[in-house]
Amino acid sequence: MSETFDGGCACGALRYCMRSRPMIVHCCHCKDCQRQTGTGFVVNALIEADRVEVLSGSPRGYAMPTDSGKPHMVFRCPDCATAAWSEYGGTTALRFVRVGTLDDPTAMPPDVHIYTRSKLPWITLPAGVPAFQAYYNSRELWPADSLARRKAAMG
Ligand SMILES: [Zn+2]
Ligand SMILES: [Zn+2]
C-alpha cells in the first residue's frame, strides 16, 4: 500500500491526508512565493487533487494576482488562514501542497529548486539537487512514473 502523510493548519480545524508520495517536490524562490508566504521560499509537493483527502474543515480558495495573468488559487483554513495548498493555471486536477503544513515536513525534501534568480543571497542551495534560474523541463527531470501520473491526472 502507499504511504500516507497527514497535515493541517495552525488552529487544527483543517486536517488533510496525502494518499501517496507526491510526483515531485518544488522549492520555489520566486518573488510571488516570497511575498505570499512572507518568507524566503516555498516548498510545494505536487500531487493529484484526488489524492488529497480533506479530513476536517472546509478550505477556502483565494485568487492571487500573478505576473503571468494565469490563475493561482490558494486554499486556506477559513478560521486561521493558514495556506495548505495551491492550484495553478486553473488546473483543478493537481494540487501544490505546502510541505510546511505536513505533520512531518522532513518527509518531503525538495527534488528541485526553481526561480533561483530571485533566491535570497544568504540561502545556500544543497549540492546534488537540481536548481534552475527559472522553470525547467519536467520531461527531462521527472521520474517516468511521475510523468505518467500527471498525464493520467490531466486526462
Ligand atoms: Zn486553521
Ligand atoms: Zn514561486
What does this structure look like?
The chain has 155 residues and is of the alpha+beta class. The chain contains three helices and ten strands. It has helices spanning 31-37, 138-141, 144-154, and strands at 5-8, 15-18, 24-28, 42-48, 52-56, 60-63, 72-76, 83-88, 94-98, 112-114. It has a seven-stranded mixed β-sheet. Strands 1-2-5 form a three-stranded antiparallel β-sheet, with no helix packed on it. Strand 1 (5-8) and strand 2 form a beta hairpin. The longest helix has 11 residues, at 144-154. 30% of the residues are buried. The structure holds zinc ion (ZN) (2 copies). Residues 28, 30, 32-33, 115 line the site of one zinc ion.
The string of secondary-structure elements, in order, is: EEEHEEEEEEEHH
Low-confidence sequence ranges: none
Major beta-sheet overview: 7 strands, mixed
State the secondary-structure class.
alpha+beta
Average pLDDT works out at 96
Compute the number of strand runs: 10
How much is the radius of gyration in Å? 15 Å
Helical residues, percent: 10-25%
Bound molecules: zinc ion
Strand order of the largest sheet: 6-7-8-9-4-3-10
Assembly level = single chain
Amount of beta strand: 25-35%
Q: Rough shape? A: globular
Number of helices: 3
Distance between the termini: 24 Å
